[in-house]
Amino acid sequence: EFVDVGLSQDLLLAGYLCKTGFTWTNFVKTILEAAFGVDPAAKLGDPVQEWAMGKKWLICHTLLTPSEGSGRSVSVNSRRSNIEQTMRGVPGSFDFSPVVYSVVLGNAELGAPVPYVASSAIPSSACWCYSAARTACQVCLPVHRWTVDSEEVGGFSNFIQAASELPVIGCAAASSAILAPLLMSEVATDLLGDLAPAATVWQGCNSGGNTFQQASDMVVGLMSRRGYRRRDAATALAGEAVCATADGGSCDSTGIATAVRSGSREVVAYIVADENNYPYQLAKLFPGSFPGEERFMGHLMSSSLGSRPPPVFKQGAAEVLEAFTSFPSLRLPTDTMFLRSICFGSLEVTTVDSPLWGISGGISVTLHLLGVSADVSVGLLQDFHDYDVLVQEIIACIASEDNAEIVLGKLLPWVLQE
């Protein structure tokens, strides 16, 4: 009798999370602890192996920042709670702001080496706005609404001064919370109810692990209570500056833009390509339309994720895709199950003025790209063991004698430069 292994694993995991309490952080904790042995108490500033000493670790993610008056908002609890969040003082119209947790590995005494967010994206004078509404009679009486503001965000100093105290699990969860943008979709939050905020990583103005734990406890507490005063809840949320984080892919899933914002002018990036070897996530960084854009944006649930982010580079997206698909490829081993291709090449690109990223125009950047196309999904209905096989296939391909000349002469110099 046929049994879908991926489906059965997903059901087992879902059952476990239902028993232990489903939150996105708990999901990530379970995966990292069971599969990789990551200590739940690990912090960004913990000791590392010698090869990693002194390197900067940038953990890209986004904040949900729909501007006040835009008509869009974040549902902090669920739509029936009528507690919604916007941001006042953000200059752009894009609903997301790219941010980064950063640390110098092996040096717990240093603060974050990179600003948490570009001041041109979220000025220090900006603040979170929490709107609480109550309707005495949904048919005939007006809505009573209160708005409470947080203090000015400043420079998000809690992520700068105490960066080494941030928990690895919390940061990993925040940077992978792919469902969080659904909080801005009224249809999604009506359908999912309390599941939508539970699948989001919340953070506040506290330092270290408390920035995640206290914010999450507050939101989860609201979900478990009935009959509370919404105005009091909004005031409490504002006092802690509770906000939602989302997967970095809402702005850039390649990490390239964050690297450039951090000062890099030569970037090596591992690019996930689709079955046709199209690097759609890379194309988002460039202006103009490109083949397959409509299907790509639909796949990203564009109705929830908002519009395409402003470009970072001036070259056209179609031009970049054409160059990428012309890259040479490594020779694959004959027994691969999931790996379709590994291509490689370099592009010379130039930045444009990007307030969202805090990047000035006219900067020349070299992109060294390693594109991998494979027959695996990012998760749902996929046998977890398929990822083991894929990683081994990538290693075997790169280590193959057939590719030794290219790997030694071209790829290794990208990452072993002095």
What is the topology?
Layout: H1 5-20, H2 24-36, E1 56-64, E2 74-75, E3 83-88, E4 96-104, E5 127-135, E6 143-149, H3 168-174, H4 186-192, H5 195-198, E7 201-203, H6 210-224, H7 230-240, E8 243-247, H8 256-261, E9 266-273, H9 280-283, H10 293-299, H11 302-305, H12 317-325, E10 339-350, E11 364-374, H13 384-399, H14 404-415
Parallel strand pairs: 9-11
Antiparallel strand pairs: 1-4, 1-8, 2-3, 3-5, 5-6, 7-8, 10-11
Helix pairs in contact: 2-3, 6-7
Describe it.
This protein is an alpha+beta fold and 418 residues long. It is built from 14 helices and eleven strands. The protein has helices at residues 5-20, 24-36, 168-174, 186-192, 195-198, 210-224, 230-240, 256-261, 280-283, 293-299, 302-305, 317-325, 384-399, 404-415; strands at 56-64, 74-75, 83-88, 96-104, 127-135, 143-149, 201-203, 243-247, 266-273, 339-350, 364-374. A four-stranded antiparallel beta sheet has the order 4-1-8-7. A four-stranded antiparallel beta sheet has the order 2-3-5-6, with helices on one face. Helix 2 packs across helix 3 (168-174). The longest helix has 16 residues, at 5-20. Residues 298-304 have low confidence and may be disordered.
